[in-house]
Specification:
Elements: E1 2-7, E2 11-18, E3 21-29, H1 36-49, E4 59-64, H2 70-80, E5 86-87, H3 108-121, E6 125-130, E7 133-139, E8 145-152, H4 154-163, H5 184-211, E9 216-220, H6 224-227, E10 236-237, H7 241-252
Parallel strand pairs: 1-4, 4-5, 6-9, 9-10
Antiparallel strand pairs: 1-2, 2-3, 6-7, 7-8
Helix pairs in contact: 1-2, 3-7
């Protein structure tokens, strides 16, 4: 079995694979204050809850957009699983040319998702990842990572309204009953929800025009369930796209088995 770990700004997504089968997956809070021992015990507890033996984990791969957490998670695996994880970054084979002015600037999570999307659906395709930030990534018909767009996530937008205004409250993000709000909360929900749908639709339209084609559009990320159903041009909702991509990259870079 292998464990895949996607360290995001808000949550850490984890999964365990036996071959291509996802046996279990979890999400825990990204906490820079936790030690390697604390993370190690959390991982062991999660596995135990699913009746999966820690001793059966013989490989791991990490994608991280939170650099301070990467060595902590690495240490947890080395200490509690006797496994040295692969880390997505320079030197790791992806099989995907990165057509970007500075390839090292591209977040590892974006490359992982792009690899998974192209493997599953071919190209051209667009990946929309509704996370802390919402990212849009374009992959060519020949499997090249072309670049993309980064927008504030809908949760960040809601927090900005609350923090940067004197009288607007912190609200739950959900689809309002009407676009014309009859009170402050419903007015804010209208602006956030319908405004975000407009943002996503427009960026997809602009990218599709530049690709001069109709790409397959794949949605993923923690807020995808909330927004994606309203976006008619989204073809597929893939909540485990990052986990699948990490499994794929692990297979491409699997360490040689010890004799």
């Amino acid at each position: 079995m292998i464990m895949v770990i996607d360290i995001g700004n808000t949550t850490i997504a984890l999964g365990v694979f036996q071959g291509k089968k996802l046996l279990a997956s979890w999400k825990i809070k990204s906490d820079r204050e936790k030690t390697a021992d604390e993370y190690g015990l959390i991982l062991c507890s999660l596995l135990s809850h699913e009746e999966l033996a820690c001793q059966k984990i013989n490989g791991a791969i990490i994608s991280s957009v939170v650099p301070p957490l990467t060595p902590v998670i690495q240490q947890a695996f080395e200490r509690y699983f006797a496994v040295k994880p692969l880390v997505v970054g320079p030197g790791l084979k992806t099989g995907m040319p990165i057509i970007y002015e500075n390839p090292s600037e591209v977040g590892s999570d974006r490359i992982v998702a792009a690899c998974a999307a192209y493997e599953k659906y071919g190209g051209p395709c667009l990946v929309v990842d509704f996370g802390t930030a919402t990212t849009f990534d374009a992959i060519s018909s020949t499997g090249e990572y072309l670049g993309g767009s980064i927008a504030p996530g809908i949760q960040i937008s809601a927090e900005a309204l609350y923090l940067r205004t004197a009288r607007l409250p912190r609200i739950e993000i959900k689809k309002p009953k009407a676009a014309i709000g009859r009170n402050t909360v419903s007015s804010m929900q209208s602006g956030l929800y319908f405004g975000y749908i407009g943002l996503v639709n427009q960026i997809i339209a602009e990218m599709s025009a530049e690709l001069q084609s109709t790409p397959v559009v794949i949605a993923t990320g923690g807020q995808a369930d909330l927004i994606a159903p309203e976006i008619k041009v989204i073809n597929h909702l893939e909540p485990n796209l990052m986990l699948e991509g990490l499994r794929l990259l692990y297979e491409k870079n699997r360490p040689p088995e010890k004799k």
